[in-house]
Specification:
By secondary structure, this protein is α+β, with helices and mostly antiparallel strands. About 25% of the residues lie in helices and about 45% in strands. The two termini are about 25 Å apart.
Amino acid sequence: KWMESARIEYLRLLGIDYTSIVCSGYDFVIVSFSMSCPPKPLRMEEDIVLESNLEEVKGVQMIWEQNLLSKDRETVYMKASVALSIFHREEGEVVQALSRFLEEKNSTTG
């Protein structure tokens, strides 16, 4: 849940309104997901930082890198790579020109 919320917030900061995209008939679907957890355990009630970066938009996928870090950002608790596509529910198809689609959504929200 945290990772999804961080990606949505990141898109919002880029001027892309996730809610309006979903309300207009699209869903964000996970195409691939990989995660590694280095051997340093996270302690209960420890302050953490979730870094999320949209590394690239390539073909039909958005590639995200997300890291769960200590507050001082020196300890890595989790590293994840997430590839998402946007799927049109009614048409049953993946958005092919993803970069252009996101640019259009950006220009209509701002």
